[in-house]
Amino acid sequence: MNQYVNRKFSNQYKATIGADFLTKEVQFEDRQFTLQIWDTAGQERFQSLGVAFYRGADCCVLVYDVNVMKSFDNLNNWREEFLIQASPSDPENFPFVVLGNKIDVDSGNSRVVSEKKAKAWCASKGNIPYFETSAKEGFNVEAAFQCIAKNALKNEPEEEISVPQMGLLGTFSLG
Question: Are 8 and 174 in contact (CB under 8 A)?
Answer without folding.
Answer: no
